[in-house]
Write a structure and sequence with these properties.
By secondary structure, the protein is α+β, with helices and mostly antiparallel strands. It folds into 3 domains: about 110 residues, Recoverin, domain 1; about 100 residues; about 110 residues. The protein is about 55% helix and about 15% strand. The chain is built from 15 helices and 10 strands. The strands form 4 sheets. A 4-stranded antiparallel beta sheet has the order 1-4-7-10, with no helix packed on it. The longest helix has 21 residues. The model has no long low-confidence stretch (mean pLDDT about 85). Keywords: Calcium. This is EF-hand domain-containing protein. GO terms for molecular function: calcium ion binding.
Length: about 350
């Protein structure tokens, strides 16, 4: 099982090479401009956005919340006008790619080649039998010591990517699962006792390993721990904190009194996210829930207009509270998706 890392450096090198990037823009634009009128309609742009990851070896949609959020931004950036010129196409594409690169620098993604080797090793190990017995006990809710063979599939989510199992919730694994069920001669109508379950599941996994040997799969895997450490570093670095606060305030919509509504505080958190090591607002539900609790605690959704000084005080309250919450109860996010060849 081979593994390669994706940290955004390849994308940045590509974009920063004017000759290579401009040639790509010309080629891509001309290919998409099917009616050759020198501009792209929304229907002409859609295939480009969908294939953006494959074209440059980027992580696929669904690989992580971080990159999914940026992909969603792609559609909105390109949909601002009825048609897009080549200059606008190149500019927006560059912004998108640099955004993806920044996201990958914060949350690198590993692309793993699954060839069945690791899964075969796991299914043949003493560790497998202990864990399979534990899975049987968990699934045997009736506690009668028997399970239908169809429940084998319910065991797959408990076998991690690290053990050689492609993500069980990815629809692209269905063909492999059906092959393995046939190869292992699993009769879904048969009831299995504890040891029969362990042995049948092992045969099933070994058959999956055989299928992966013949038809390997690539999986994009990411892991991110939000434990407050990045926020703590930012709060201790006065220069970086001052820079982030000033830039965030500059971007906030203001009234004629040069005040901003508290309604924009969430936008402020989003703006400071990269500096504080936080995901985009709306991309990780668990982090959003903690933020909501903080906003309710400090009554930050009342729409009151506040000065820059008060805005910064509110931002510090949010970041400080979020840091403490994450230190006490870190949030771990793991994501795995099969990559199209």
């Amino acid at each position: 099982m081979a593994m390669t890392g994706m940290d955004g450096s390849r994308i940045k090198n590509f974009v920063e090479s004017d000759r290579t990037f401009n040639a790509y823009v010309d080629t891509k634009f001309n290919a998409l401009d099917t009616d050759h009128d020198g501009s792209l309609t929304q229907s002409e742009l859609k295939p480009m956005v969908q294939s953006l990851g494959d074209a440059l070896g980027l992580p696929p949609i669904g690989s992580s919340a971080e990159t999914d959020h940026i992909y969603q931004e792609v559609f909105s950036e390109f949909s601002k006008g009825a048609a897009v010129s080549k200059d606008v196409f190149g500019r927006v594409l560059k912004d998108i790619l640099l955004g993806l690169a920044d996201g990958l620098e914060r949350d690198p993604i590993s692309v793993i080649q699954f060839d069945g080797t690791r899964l075969r090793e796991y299914a043949s190990s003493p560790q497998y039998e202990v864990e399979a017995l534990s899975v049987f006990t968990r699934l045997d809710v009736k506690q009668d010591g028997r399970l239908p063979a169809s429940r084998l599939l319910d065991a797959l989510p408990s076998i991690s990517v690290i053990k050689g199992m492609p993500p069980a919730d990815d629809p692209k694994i269905r063909g492999l699962v059906h092959y393995a069920l046939r190869a292992a001669r699993v009769d879904s109508r048969k009831n299995l006792d504890q040891m029969q379950f362990v042995d049948t599941l092992r045969k099933f996994l070994l058959s999956m390993a055989d299928g992966l040997k013949t038809h390997p799969m690539k999986v994009a895997h990411s892991e991110k721990l939000y434990d407050g450490e990045s926020i703590k570093k930012l709060l201790k670095n006065e220069e970086e904190l001052r820079k982030a606060l000033d830039e965030t305030w500059r971007r906030m919509p203001k009234d004629n009194r040069y005040k901003a509504s508290k309604d924009y505080l969430r936008i402020g958190v989003d703006e400071m996210g990269p500096a504080a090591g936080l995901p985009p607002v709306g991309s990780v539900e668990e982090v959003d829930d903690v933020l909501q609790q903080i906003f309710e605690k400090f009554n930050l959704d009342d729409g009151e207009s506040i000065s820059q000084e008060d805005f910064e005080k509110c931002m510090m309250e949010v970041l400080g509270s979020l840091m403490l919450q994450l230190e006490g109860k870190p949030i771990s996010i793991k994501s795995s998706k099969i990559v199209d060849e």
